[in-house]
Amino acid sequence: MANKIHVLDPPRAIGWLTGHDPQGDGNLEFGGWSWRYDLASSGPSETEVTLTYDWSAVPESVRSYLRFPPFGPEHLPNSLRHLADLAARTSRM
Question: What Gene3D superfamilies does the entry give (predicted)?
Answer without folding.
Answer: 3.30.530.20
